[in-house]
Amino acid sequence: MQTENRLTNSLYKTINSFVNVLPIIIGMLLATSLVITVFPEQISAGLFGNGDILDALLGVSIGSIAVGHPLASYLLGGELLRGGVGLVAVTALLVSWVTVGIVQLPAESLLLGGRFAITRNVVCFFTAIIIAFMTAFTLQLLGMV
Amino acid sequence: MPEKRERRGLGGWIFLALVLLSYGLIGLFEPEATTQALTFFLHVMRQVLPVLGLVFILLFIANLLLEPKWIQRYLGTGAGPKGWVAAVIGGILSIGPIYVWYAILSELQSKGMRTALIATFLYGRAVKLPLLPLMIHYFGIAYTLVLCMYLVLFAGINGILVEKLVPQKDNEQI
Question: Which among A143, A70, A42, A13 has a CA at the least distance from the CA of B106?
Answer without folding.
Answer: A13
